[in-house]
Every structure is written in structure tokens, then in C-alpha cells.
């Protein structure tokens, strides 16, 4: 954020980025339904370096409870399998040539509770991030008023805009969390 001018669109952009990051994190939580995003955090050691799974294979979802990973180079199949097993996603790959099939078991009640806790933790982290952007915006407005660059009325008006935006984004985060929570708890 520029330290000399106040730009509400920049504040909104930063807050929305946090909401989008939350959506990506929640997409990676296993809810009992197969999702290609489940494998997004998986790192694979191939060609002497670590890289994301999607750079060495194609991930598809042919059935609601099955993920298919088509490895491009046959020599990387065992490395991909190892990467998936080490990712602690709770899935066991079945190797079929250069394709790995990942059956997604229905989560137990205990596992659903753990997933819900994790989702709530992600949401709280992003609420904090939105509030931090709000705090930075408010501090900038106070500094600009103190330095005489904006008047008191303008500072109060812009502070109200920042607060309104913060409330709106926090509500969107809560709605996103509620939708994911419902998806997790669905048997």
C-alpha cells in the first residue's frame, strides 16, 4: 500500500486476495468427495528437485470417489506415489501402469470433526489477514490526517468505508466456511 495516498480499491483487492486464498485452502480439504484440488499441496521429488504434482502428471476425477493421476514420464511413477503417500492425505494410491488411482474413502465422524476444525482454523487465519489490512488502512488514514493531507471529515468517511468493506469480507469468509462445513458434515 502506498504510504502517501489512500486507495480503497487497493485495500479491497488485498482483502479479496485473502478470501481467494481461503477458498483455495478449503478446496484442498478432503470431504469424502473426490476433488482434483485435493492433490494441490502434494510435492514430488523428480529430476533432482521438488515440484508440484501437477507439473509431472495430469489429475482428473473420473468418479465421485476416485481421483486418477496420469504420470507423464513412466520413470516418475514411484516418485509420484511416494509423494502422495507422504502428503498425509489419507489416501492409498493403486498403481496401474503410468496411472495412479486414488480411491477416496468416506471420512469417519472423528475425521470430519478434524476437517471442520482445520477449516475453522483456515477461516480464522484469513479473518485476521483481512483485519490486518483494515488496521493498515486505518493507520494510514490517521497518519494522513495528522500530516494535514486530508481533513477530519474525509478521514472519518474513509474509515467508515474501510470498516464497511471489512465487515463485508468477514461475512463472505463466514459464508464460505459455512458452505464448506456443511459439505464436510454431509455423510
General description of the model:
This protein is an alpha+beta fold and 187 residues long. It is built from four helices and six strands; from the N terminus they run H-E-E-E-E-H-E-E-H-H. The strands form two sheets. It has a four-stranded antiparallel β-sheet, covered by helices on one side. A two-stranded antiparallel ribbon has the order 1-2. Helix 1 packs antiparallel against helix 3, helix 1 runs parallel beside helix 4 and helix 3 runs antiparallel to helix 4. The longest helix has 38 residues. It is elongated, with a radius of gyration of 22 Å.
Q: Which ranges are low-confidence, i.e. pLDDT below 50, for 5 or more consecutive residues?
A: none
Estimate percent helicity. Answer: 40-55%
By secondary-structure content and strand pairing, the structural class works out as alpha+beta
Instruction: List how many beta strands DSSP finds.
Output: 6
What is the tally of helical segments?
Answer: 4
CATH topology of the largest domain: Topoisomerase I, Chain A, domain 4
Mean of the pLDDT scores?
86
Secondary-structure element sequence? HEEEEHEEHH
Radius of gyration: 22 Å
The name of the CATH architecture of the largest domain is Orthogonal Bundle
> What share of residues are in beta strands?
15-25%
GO molecular function, one term: ribosomal large subunit binding
Function: Responsible for the release of ribosomes from messenger RNA at the termination of protein biosynthesis. May increase the efficiency of translation by recycling ribosomes from one round of translation to another.
Family: Belongs to the RRF family.
InterPro entries: Ribosome_recyc_fac, Ribosome_recyc_fac_dom, RRF_sf
Amino acid at each position: 500500500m502506498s504510504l502517501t495516498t489512500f486507495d480503497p480499491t487497493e485495500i479491497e483487492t488485498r482483502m479479496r486476495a485473502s478470501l481467494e486464498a481461503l477458498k483455495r485452502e478449503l478446496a484442498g480439504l478432503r470431504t469424502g468427495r473426490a476433488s482434483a484440488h485435493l492433490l494441490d499441496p502434494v510435492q514430488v521429488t523428480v529430476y533432482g528437485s521438488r515440484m508440484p504434482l501437477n507439473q509431472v502428471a495430469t489429475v482428473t476425477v473420473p468418479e465421485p470417489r476416485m481421483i486418477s493421476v496420469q504420470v507423464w514420464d513412466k520413470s516418475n511413477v514411484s516418485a509420484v506415489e511416494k509423494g502422495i503417500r507422504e502428503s498425509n492425505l489419507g489416501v492409498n494410491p493403486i498403481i496401474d501402469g503410468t496411472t495412479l488411482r486414488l480411491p477416496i474413502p468416506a471420512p469417519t465422524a472423528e475425521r470430519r470433526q478434524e476437517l471442520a476444525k482445520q477449516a475453522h482454523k483456515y477461516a480464522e487465519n484469513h479473518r485476521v489477514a483481512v483485519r490486518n489490512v483494515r488496521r493498515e488502512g486505518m493507520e494510514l488514514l490517521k497518519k494522513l490526517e495528522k500530516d494535514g493531507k486530508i481533513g477530519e471529515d474525509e478521514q472519518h468517511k474513509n474509515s467508515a468505508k474501510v470498516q464497511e468493506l471489512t465487515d463485508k469480507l468477514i461475512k463472505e469468509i463466514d459464508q464460505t466456511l459455512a458452505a464448506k462445513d456443511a459439505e464436510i458434515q454431509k455423510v
